[in-house]
């Protein structure tokens, strides 16, 4: 009990069960315990939530927020009598039973539900994103053609530029939808993460009241990843952390080497992983929103579109990793990224992107598309 709920063994002795059972489940627990008084019946499979010791002191899990939520257990209980339970003269002495910790099972159930939900939404998103992208390509292409026939000083030219900007923003949103639906097919290379993370965090926090703090060990394992996509994930998480601290603060980014086993309490295959933690001390996420933060279109921000975290989740999943979150309102939030590590320590670094080159030449250009609108746009633009 002391490890799970913050009690020492001697503090539990003599307490009534109602002091430990969560208020939401108290009525069901009363029924189960009172049933013991009526005969030799047994309770099996009853799920209850237990609450933590309210006066839990420094260093306990309850204070740290890890187990501030009620502890889910499965109860198996039997009545204790002074003689055969079927004897009418029996005297009820008490109840004995076992409460099995359900945290791991509940975590796996939540993960499975999240995966199924994301898969279903991903299929829907993928189904509409391709057609929507074609429509936008036709719009952007025709705007570009219209600008060729307008003078820059004309009012219509300014209107066309505004339309073009709005269309390009919509195209970017559609691209995020495609990335979420398909994971973005990462182009992975071997490398190490600290420099990439430092650059990403420093870039998005430049000029803000929030400062980054980096804690990376010198022996952090190498990994195989898509630098552009992981940069996008880190920027999304750091931006969220900064927005949770509008008065300023520190975003701490921590790198750790983690080896998982079958007993590890995360839905990961056994093996070597890099765990990257993004920690803030902001407003925190309400419990009712924690299960929704990775859903596309879910946002609590006034001008948010709700794609940053869902896209990040899909990117990490496509890398064979896992993205999860824990949060306590008023204390802050931690996002954990798990990325598979390379089989052995490597000094490989992420290669610099080569500069784009322009090539000139003559010849025929073959354009293939099943959308007539796009065929016309491409023909005009190429001509």
SSE blueprint:
Blueprint: H1 2-5, H2 9-12, H3 26-35, E1 42-50, H4 61-64, E2 71-81, E3 92-101, H5 103-148, H6 155-182, E4 189-191, H7 194-205, E5 210-215, E6 223-225, H8 227-243, E7 249-260, E8 271-280, H9 287-290, H10 308-318, E9 322-328, E10 332-340, H11 372-382
Parallel strand pairs: 5-7
Antiparallel strand pairs: 1-2, 2-3, 4-6, 7-8, 8-10, 9-10
Please describe what this structure looks like.
The chain has 383 residues and is an alpha+beta fold. It folds into 3 domains: 2-101, PAS domain (Beta-Lactamase), CATH 3.30.450; 109-182 and 354-382, no CATH class; 189-340, Histidine kinase-like ATPase, C-terminal domain (Heat Shock Protein 90, 2-Layer Sandwich), CATH 3.30.565.10. 39% of the residues lie in helices and 21% in strands. The strands form 3 sheets. The chain has a 5-stranded mixed β-sheet. A 3-stranded antiparallel β-sheet has the order 1-2-3.
**Largest sheet, order of strands side by side?**
5-7-8-10-9
What general form does the structure show? elongated
**Helix-strand topology string:** HHHEHEEHHEHEEHEEHHEEH
% residues in beta strands: 15-25%
């Amino acid at each position: 009990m002391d490890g799970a709920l913050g009690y020492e063994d001697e503090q539990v002795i003599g307490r009534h069960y109602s002091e430990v059972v969560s208020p939401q489940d108290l009525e069901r627990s009363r029924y189960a315990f009172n049933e013991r008084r009526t005969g030799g019946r047994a309770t099996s499979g009853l799920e209850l939530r237990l609450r933590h010791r309210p006066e839990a002191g420094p260093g306990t899990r309850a204070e740290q927020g890890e187990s501030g939520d009620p502890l889910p257990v499965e109860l198996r209980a039997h009545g204790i009598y002074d003689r055969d339970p079927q004897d009418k003269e029996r005297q009820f002495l008490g109840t004995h039973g076992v409460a099995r910790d359900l945290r791991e099972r509940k975590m796996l159930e939540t993960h499975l539900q999240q995966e199924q939900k994301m898969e279903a939404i991903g299929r829907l998103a993928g189904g509409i994103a391709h057609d929507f992208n074609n429509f936008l390509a036709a719009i952007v292409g025709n705007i570009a053609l219209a600008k060729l026939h307008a003078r820059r000083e004309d009012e219509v030219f300014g209107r066309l530029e505004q339309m073009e900007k709005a269309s390009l923003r919509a195209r970017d949103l559609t691209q995020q939808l495609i990335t979420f639906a398909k994971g973005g097919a990462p182009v992975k290379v071997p490398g190490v993460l600290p420099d990439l993370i430092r650059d990403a965090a420093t870039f998005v926090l430049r000029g803000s009241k929030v400062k980054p703090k980096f804690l990376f060990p010198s022996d952090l394992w190498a990994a195989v990843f898509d630098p552009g996509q992981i940069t996008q994930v880190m920027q999304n998480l750091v931006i969220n952390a900064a927005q949770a601290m509008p008065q300023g603060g520190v975003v701490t980014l921590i790198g750790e080497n983690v080896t998982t086993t079958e007993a590890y309490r995360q839905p990961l295959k056994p093996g070597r992983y890099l765990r990257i933690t993004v920690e803030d001390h902001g407003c925190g996420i309400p419990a009712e929103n924690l299960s929704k933060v990775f859903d596309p279109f879910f946002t609590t921000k006034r001008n948010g579109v709700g794609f940053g975290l869902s896209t990040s989740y899909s990117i990490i999943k496509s890398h064979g990793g896992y993205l999860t979150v824990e949060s306590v309102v008023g204390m802050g939030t931690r996002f954990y990224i798990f990325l598979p590590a390379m089989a052995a320590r490597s000094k490989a670094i992420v290669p610099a992107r080569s500069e784009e080159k322009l090539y000139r030449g003559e010849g025929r250009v073959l354009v293939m598309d099943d959308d007539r609108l796009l065929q016309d746009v491409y023909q005009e633009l190429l001509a």
